[in-house]
């Protein structure tokens, strides 16, 4: 948050305090005074070291921030879904063809690393054309859709500049074809939704009323007159497609020196070129610096901001240019039904500004709170604005200065250049050409930095991947620029001019600006979607939208009118800015409107500021418990991070020194003078500003800062950011989709959570705890009640009242599984996991609304916490939990275990039910991220056969869950058809899918329900069980060729029909039950990743042939023998395997090489086999020793059961690729087998 810090030591002869003055990014000012020079210098050095010396991106506040309870109910990472947003525009694979299609060409970010994974391109253009066209655009940022108008089907597309050559003679047919296809996608315009026309047939337009533009042309650009055209055209005029270059024309021409530039319009005949004349990032940085200079001395004197410097900053001029460009685009698309392609240099700064603001003009949805968030996520975050580089989160020593200590040059001049380089001023053409001349001897981080491009034929010179962020890094000050700040300022101008057309208020924009620099959330920390994914942003940090959406009412505009009617003035779909009415955003600067805008036409005048109370403004946080403190108080708010506590204590400690001379550290509006009617509303406790009051009364300290306090502060900061700072557990990190680089990767060993999720799952179902079934727990039902959950809850409420029924259910949830049950499961049955059926109603009253459970919703108020407690108890015993959404809205099948006795499967036929089911799953996925021991999430239980739209719904839900946590395995029902399900998961688990959620098939195997089962002898059925799962043959065991096919048996039992038992002698039944159970468990352990017996027990008996406990005790259900080993035995087996590993590898590797080299020597890459073997051997050993080594509770040795999806995971993590990747997979699988052979398991 520090923008500039200066230390001012004073000569002793002057008898004045030494001062440290700080200005923050959010225009907060601070001043600290000291009588002791050594102490002052010590504090300055500490602030500098702890700011500039942070060194690692991973030590920013966001990686340690813990959300308060109010934010935990929201997941801001979910709000933007690219497929959903483009579907809103009418583009989806299943929708009508509007001339556009979704392309997955960049799904792994290798095609264009700074672009989003999902691109929208014309339907007529193939991916092959895109592949050959990308080289022609800087950074491979091809023209791609960002907005499609709902009425006229005209588009806004965006790209980077072309590589047209020094003489504009280079061309690319594929690029020309792509642009031509874009400009030919629109359909005839209907009359609906047309903007308002005045009496003369002209569009009602604020800019036109002021004489600044026309509907046909545009606001003035570098090629146009500022006079109003007389030939204004109404909606439906001749189409005139535009290529909009946001740069000044001289900059674009200068870029030709390096082979870049702007389009040669001879090759793009269907369009007109327009230059917007918006200067580069250096000019914008310099402009903001001049604004800061205008506030010089205003934090401790009564002089207001210098109006002359404000005018010279050109800040409002630049805001006007951005708004005019946005108005041009909006008019061309919304009024002249034309297409517009926007670009600047790299296409991520000015392009994002113009693209987003023009959509704000065109689409009322983006003027809602959620819509604006989607717009920011789409056009800024997803399309790769370089937030990290532009914002300078790691600070710089160039932003720190000691006055009168300027050895070797003018330090202040150097600092000014760092903040606002003058390279953007003066003769722009000469400046750019000068930069271009040095191009081949200097590599630029960003083309925006000099408006010159890298013309090398290799990969574009993009900033280093943030996967290297753990290295010591500093801010490149020449890459910083207030680009997103300008976007927010321009949005503020439109909000102020159209106060009833925006759902959100000014306060929302101001707070969003604060969080741009707060580093409290992860939303703005990265430069691209790829970096966000690869750095596990969704797991390691929180979304800033959690903060805003959890406090939604704070940001709502009371004047908002959502009505859209193009026939009523003031309610049109399109709004346009009036650039003659651009004003200073005085609230952002912490000033009154009078101070900032009252003397706009007399720039040399300065108004005295209103009197205000002295105050030191410190760190802002969202914690409610952190607020104003008395002198000397500590600001250790509940849940505050170490950084907040340390920095707040520094503020409080300095504020409590009762220094002889204190500066008023905040602008007038920050301290709110009661005499000022037009002053800014004060920051109240809900905005969480930490502040410390100061006093003018001297005390015994006489301004001295104790060294004890300083040491304590340093200690606290080191604990937050030092080498011992807490790191995010690797097992919990969200994995990302990444390209296969074929480069050796440093792989982490399997984590405890990996062991929980990928070992063989031997266990049982906990039936009738959270989803009641009368035959299992009749004690929970009233006499004569139906058999489903709904009958139980309504019957109990009717019989005993709501409170008693609620208590009965809560007691059942908490006590049905006792501690002795858990001990038996862990130590006797050797369970590794349980499958826990839950219902949508289990999630609480909010999920019961508009469902049959609505009247009983209060009973379930504490159901979800009970689930979490049970999961925690299981984890403590070393037992994982598969969360099974057993009962879904409407029912996934007609059984009573769907929650009701309707007998219908209405989930698949109702969008309302599917939407609610999706909401439930997203909630569970979000919650599961913070729950230890969750091995997976099952989307649906026993979907009815041939369920309508099931796999499409799976696709949708899997994609959305992936945005929350793409590491958690997702289990799907095969709908009683295993073969098609295997084909589906082969595709979902392919290497092409990258680091997506692993998908596991849940199939249920019973021999007790069909007429065919009744005809078979129990021995015949046992033999049949020994050959089950043949559908996997040819689909598993080879991830590279087929993808991963992983199956678990979610339900099975030892139950047969009475007819079957009647075919055997009565005295044989016990042995036949045991034979049947053992046949199943042995087969499932061979071919599946796990199996869960139905069910654990009943409340009136151990369960008979339905009871896991009884059948385990009878020897029918047997755990894998490795789970029964003692930990000493496990350690001994590991030691033996290790001692023999070198010899085993030599034997295995020699055989492999001899076999393959015998016919084609030298054609293979056997190092891949070697690296795979070693990884597989070590992984198997890590799983096997996890309990004995104390990494997870319990005894025994675990084997990798989910072998196919684990193999796929490790291949992706290895980074290897190529046609010989099969050697790595072969080696990996062989290494696992060899360890088990040596360990005797």
UniProtKB/TrEMBL annotation:
Q: Which UniProt keywords apply?
A: Glycosidase, Hydrolase
Q: Which residues form a coiled coil?
A: none
InterPro entries per the record?
A: GH, Glyco_hydro_5, Myotubularin, Myotubularin-like_Pase_dom, PH-like_dom_sf, Prot-tyrosine_phosphatase-like, Tyr_Pase_AS
A cellular component annotation (GO) from this entry: cytoplasm
Report the active site residues.
344
Entry GO MF terms: hydrolase activity, hydrolyzing O-glycosyl compounds; phosphatidylinositol-3-phosphate phosphatase activity
Q: What Gene3D superfamilies does this protein's entry cite? A: Glycosidases (3.20.20.80), Pleckstrin-homology domain (PH domain)/Phosphotyrosine-binding domain (PTB) (2.30.29.30)
Bias (Low complexity) occurs at 211-227, 660-675, 723-744
The text of the family note is: Belongs to the protein-tyrosine phosphatase family. Non-receptor class myotubularin subfamily.
What name goes with this protein? Answer: Phosphatases II
The organism of origin for this protein: Aureobasidium pullulans
What lineage is on file?
Eukaryota, Fungi, Dikarya, Ascomycota, Pezizomycotina
């Amino acid at each position: 948050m520090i923008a500039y810090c200066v230390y001012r030591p004073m000569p002793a002869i002057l008898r004045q305090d030494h001062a440290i003055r700080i200005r923050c990014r959010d225009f907060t000012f601070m001043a600290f005074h000291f009588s002791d020079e050594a102490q002052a210098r010590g504090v300055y050095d500490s602030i500098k070291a702890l700011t500039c010396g942070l060194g690692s991106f991973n030590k920013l506040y966001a990686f340690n921030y813990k959300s308060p309870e109010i934010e935990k109910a929201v997941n801001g990472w979910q709000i933007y879904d690219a497929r959903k947003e483009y579907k809103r525009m009418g583009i989806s694979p299943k929708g009508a063809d509007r001339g556009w299609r979704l392309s997955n060409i960049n799904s792994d970010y290798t095609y264009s690393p700074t672009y989003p994974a999902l691109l929208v391109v014309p339907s007529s253009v193939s991916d092959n054309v895109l592949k050959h066209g990308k080289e022609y655009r800087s950074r491979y940022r091809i023209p791609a859709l960002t907005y499609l108008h709902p009425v006229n089907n005209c588009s806004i597309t965006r790209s980077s500049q072309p590589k047209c050559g020094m003489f504009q003679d280079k061309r690319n047919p594929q690029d020309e074809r792509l642009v031509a296809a874009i400009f030919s996608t629109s359909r005839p315009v209907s009359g609906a939704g047309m903007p308002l026309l005045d009496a003369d047939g002209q569009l009602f337009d604020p800019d036109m009323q002021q004489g600044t533009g026309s509907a046909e042309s545009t606001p003035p650009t570098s090629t146009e007159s500022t006079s109003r055209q007389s030939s204004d055209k109404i909606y439906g005029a001749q189409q005139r497609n535009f290529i909009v270059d946001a740069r000044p024309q001289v900059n674009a021409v200068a870029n030709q020196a390096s082979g870049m530039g702007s389009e040669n319009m001879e090759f793009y005949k269907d369009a007109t070129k327009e230059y917007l004349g918006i200067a580069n990032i250096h000019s914008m940085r310099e402009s903001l610096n001049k604004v800061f200079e205008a506030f010089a001395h205003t934090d401790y004197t009564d002089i207001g901001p210098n109006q002359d410097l404000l005018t010279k900053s050109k800040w409002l001029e630049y805001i006007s240019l951005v708004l005019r460009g946005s108005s041009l685009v909006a008019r061309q698309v919304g009024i002249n039904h034309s297409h517009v392609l926007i670009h600047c240099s790299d296409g991520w700064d000015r392009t994002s500004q113009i693209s987003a603001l023009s959509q704000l003009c065109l689409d009322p949805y983006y003027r809602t709170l959620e819509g604006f968030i989607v717009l920011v996520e789409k056009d800024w975050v997803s399309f790769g604005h370089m937030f990290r580089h532009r914002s300078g989160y790691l600070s710089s020593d160039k932003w720190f200065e000691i006055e009168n200590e300027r050895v070797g040059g003018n330090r202040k001049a150097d600092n000014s250049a760092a903040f606002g380089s003058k390279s953007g001023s003066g003769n722009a053409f000469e400046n750019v050409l000068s930069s271009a001349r040095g191009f081949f001897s200097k590599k630029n981080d960003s083309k925006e930095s000099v408006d010159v491009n890298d013309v090398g034929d290799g990969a574009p010179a993009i900033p280093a991947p943030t996967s290297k962020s753990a290295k010591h890094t500093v801010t490149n000050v020449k890459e910083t620029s207030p680009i997103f700040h300008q976007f927010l300022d321009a949005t503020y101008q439109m909000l102020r001019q159209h106060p009833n057309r925006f759902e959100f208020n000014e306060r929302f924009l101001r707070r969003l600006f604060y969080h741009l620099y707060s580093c409290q959330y992860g939303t703005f920390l990265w430069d691209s979607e790829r970096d966000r994914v690869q750095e596990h942003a969704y797991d390691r940090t929180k979304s800033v939208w959690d903060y805003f959406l959890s406090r939604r009412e704070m940001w709502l505009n009371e004047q908002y009118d959502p009505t859209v009617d193009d026939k009523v003035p003031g309610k049109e779909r399109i709004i346009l800015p009036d650039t003659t009415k651009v004003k200073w955003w005085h609230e952002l600067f912490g000033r009154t409107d009078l101070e900032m805008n009252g003397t706009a036409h007399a720039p040399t005048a300065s108004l005295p500021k209103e009197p205000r109370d002295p105050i030191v403004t410190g760190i802002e946080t969202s914690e409610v418990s952190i607020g104003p403190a008395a002198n000397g108080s500590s600001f250790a708010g509940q849940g505050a991070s170490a950084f907040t506590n340390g920095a707040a204590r520094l503020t409080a400690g300095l504020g409590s020194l009762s220094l002889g001379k204190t500066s008023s550290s905040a602008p007038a509006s920050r301290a709110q003078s009661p005499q000022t009617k037009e002053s800014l509303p004060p920051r109240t406790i809900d905005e969480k500003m930490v502040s410390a009051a100061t006093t003018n009364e001297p005390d015994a300290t006489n301004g001295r800062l104790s060294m004890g306090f300083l040491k304590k502060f340093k200690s606290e900061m080191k604990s937050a950011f030092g080498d011992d700072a807490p790191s995010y557990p690797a097992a919990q990190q969200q994995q990302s989709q990444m390209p296969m680089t074929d480069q050796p990767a440093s792989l982490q060993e399997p984590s405890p959570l990996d062991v929980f999720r990928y070992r063989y799952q031997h266990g049982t179902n906990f039936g009738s705890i959270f989803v009641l079934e009368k035959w299992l727990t009749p004690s929970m039902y009233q006499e004569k009640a139906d058999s489903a959950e709904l009958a139980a809850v309504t019957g109990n409420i009717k019989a005993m009242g709501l409170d008693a029924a609620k208590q009965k259910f809560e007691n059942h949830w908490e006590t049905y599984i006792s501690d002795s049950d858990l001990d038996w499961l862990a130590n006797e049955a050797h369970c590794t996991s349980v499958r826990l059926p839950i219902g949508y109603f289990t999630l609480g009253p909010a999920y019961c609304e508009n469902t049959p459970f609505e009247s009983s919703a209060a009973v379930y108020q504490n159901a979800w916490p009970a689930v979490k407690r049970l999961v925690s108890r299981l984890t403590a015993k070393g037992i994982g939990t598969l969360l099974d959404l057993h009962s879904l809205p409407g029912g996934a099948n007609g059984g009573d275990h769907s929650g009701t006795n309707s007998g219908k499967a209405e989930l698949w036929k109702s969008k309302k039910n599917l939407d609610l089911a999706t909401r439930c799953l997203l909630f569970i996925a979000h919650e599961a991220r913070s729950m230890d021991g969750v091995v997976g999430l099952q989307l649906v239980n026993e979907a009815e056969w041939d369920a309508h739209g099931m796999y499409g719904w799976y696709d949708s839900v899997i994609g959305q869950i992936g945005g929350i946590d793409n590491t958690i395995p997702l289990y799907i029902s095969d709908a009683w058809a295993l073969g098609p399900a295997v084909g589906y998961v082969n595709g979902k688990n392919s290497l092409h899918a990258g680091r997506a959620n692993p998908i596991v098939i849940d199939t249920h195997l019973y021999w007790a329900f069909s007429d065919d089962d009744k005809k078979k002898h129990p021995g015949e059925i046992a033999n049949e069980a020994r050959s089950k799962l043949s559908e996997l043959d040819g689909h598993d065991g080879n991830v590279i060729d087929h993808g991963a096919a992983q199956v678990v048996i979610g339900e099975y039992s030892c139950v047969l029909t009475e007819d079957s038992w009647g075919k055997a002698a009565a005295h044989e039944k016990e042995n036949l039950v045991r034979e049947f159970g053992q046949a199943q468990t042995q087969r499932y352990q061979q071919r599946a990743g796990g199996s869960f017996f139905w069910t654990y027990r009943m409340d009136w008996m151990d369960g008979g042939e339905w009871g896991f406990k009884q059948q385990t005790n009878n020897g029918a259900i047997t755990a894998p023998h490795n789970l029964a080993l003692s930990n000493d035995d496990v350690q001994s087996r590991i030691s033996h395997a290790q001692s023999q590993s070198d010899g085993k590898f030599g034997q295995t590797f020699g055989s492999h090489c001899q076999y393959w080299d015998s016919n084609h020597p030298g054609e293979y890459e056997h190092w891949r086999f070697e690296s795979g073997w070693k990884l597989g051997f070590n992984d198997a050993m890590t799983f096997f020793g996890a309990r004995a080594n104390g990494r997870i509770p319990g005894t025994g040795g675990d084997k990798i059961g989910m072998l196919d999806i684990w193999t796929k995971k490790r291949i992706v993590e290895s980074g290897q690729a190529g046609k010989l990747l099969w050697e790595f997979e072969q080696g990996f699988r062989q290494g696992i087998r060899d360890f088990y052979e040596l360990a005797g398991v």
